[in-house]
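pinging the channel bc i need a second pair of eyes. not urgent but kinda urgent?? the chain im working w is below, pasted from the shared doc
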Amino acid sequence: MKPHYLLLGILFCYTSVAAQIDRSQQPQPGPEPEINFGSPQEYRFSNGLTLLVVENHKLPQVSVSLRIDNPLYPEGDKAGINQLLSEMMGKGSKSIEKDAFEEEIDFMGAHFHFNLDGAHASSLTRYFPRVFEMLADATLHPNFVPEEFEKEKEKAIEGLKTAEKDVKTAARRVQNLLSYGAQHPYGEYTTEGSLQNSTLEDLMKQYQQIYHAKNAYLIVVGDINFKATKKQAKKHFGRWKAGVIKTTSFPAPENVSETQIAFVEMPNAVQSEIAALFTSDLDKNNPDYYAAIIANQILGGGGEARLFLNLREDKGFTYGAYSNLSGDHKTKARLRVATSVRNAVTDSAVVKLHYEIDRMSKELVTDEELDLVKNKYAGSLIRSLEDPENIANFTYNVKTQNLPDNFYNNLLKNIKKVTKKDILRASKKYLSAGQLRIVVTGKGSDILSPLEALKINGMPVKVSYFDKWGTATEGPAFSKPIPEGTTAQSVIEGYLDAIGGRAQLEKIQTKHSIYEASMQGMTLQMEEKKAGNTKMIMEIKMMGNTMQRIVINQANAYMEMQGQRMDLKGDEKDAVMEGLPLFPELFYTDQIELIGIVDWNDKEVFEIKINPNKTVFYDTQTFLKVAEVELQNDRSSTTQFGPYKDVSGIKVPEKIQSNMGPQEVTFNLINIAFNRSFSNTDIE
């Protein structure tokens, strides 16, 4: 049984379909929405701190946001120190230790979180004075305990090691580096070396540079009184030091002169990550701002947008394709158009993605598209006003980005004024198809040749090559010499010999294994019983409670979750049945194919395709199985094995690491036994 089925089980949810909607009838427009969250009352303290209060007495709750408007600056050889600082903030203070701090927050039902920009807290009105005091205490007098620092650093390093094999993580890292440049704060990335290079002394120094009053804004929203809040703010933050604002310079992001492809080699990829990138000078004060954000929504703002309709609904290349136009008053804005597609259609997806971006600047959008997006945007904006933290963000943006006081009150009016010609003009400036940097991250042996032969609008596209850290390289070489006489079948026999030998393995009739993992601080147990290559029961327990059972026998294949049974059918059943044998390699036929020798985590491995959706990798030196990659419903899962240990003459993996998308779980072997007798109740 594959561990990724566990991930599917944990993340699985049941949905139901309501009554059918008559989509042939256009809904009648409602009243024109209005936005008016009021002007904040303001007071500036002598240390530079600005207090902004928005009174709202509809509900007995208060939200406070501390925002620090520091300029961007690179972290250099201590990249990751800001991440560590964010994790260390909010762990109590010098006057109240971590556990007592968190216990009191829980008692009040309050919410706290800290980040590099400051902190946020919310609570019922009656608890707000104490919540306000605790926020100030944790911000101004953090308790940086050496043991906690080392724990957070080790956690960050382990996170990097885990993400090192993740294709999406590598893709994002290179996309950011190529968009902004290695010297830009958004282009640099954290490494194990930069984390190891960071000390508690560095963290304390970083705190002094970031957390000071001079550029700070204290934004309070909710059921409060301005005078009382001002008095509290003066009490808790009035003696906060102004500090010195750290500034530095770094190169501005630059676009490529013409559309080109940057290829990032990831041999373990079963899908390709594609992102088209373009930076611009767009900000909220730009007259084109409103047209640009509507253009972005029409291009890739959701399931009704052009990218989604083309790449998913029409071509079936992907589960989703989206665009994002992010603005930042401290640096250039960036358009990012992204999707994940199966390897076989990577070049076609690049063409279609470019086509839709290019079309935005060549032809007018339709009336239907424009009206739909305007209404969707209005609804989203209105709903956002229900969150006090969003109101705080709006207030903060007005003060720090030199916006008119009525910017957000007039936002919908300005959106409504946007015309089709405005969108065409803005698309030519901010969604430029002629200077796109298209970053493709994937398995080069499958996708690179078609990319190198690609033409867009009849013109060849330049391809550059990068490793997963964004370092420019020569074009990757995929063909490594295969030892004479080596075939897919000989590799499989080598594996069977390595773990115990075919004759010994064929004597085994049952297997009973228990693996455990930690997931979000909870213990996860996977117990599996197999018998005679025809029966299996796998039970998943979380903190001792059964979460999921999977039962397979000659008559049935089903999953039970929370007392509900779901029969496994189609691809899901086929995949489960494929893993039913005690040792699947005993039953591989001559249909398997040796693709070649590739690198896997700095190790040379044989790549063997078992079927169109499954590839297995075996160490060229030991023949032990290193990993399996499976594609199901256009989603990939990777399972890695090792190190191995000997149990009754059979080598079994001590660790099994499985991931599906961002979810990753490492299972550790607790116990395994062979040829143990099972009763009918054990295995039925």
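so Confidence is low (pLDDT under 50) at residues 10-24. and The domain at 41-237 is CATH 3.30.830.10 (Cytochrome Bc1 Complex; Chain A, domain 1). — does that match what u expected or am i reading it wrong
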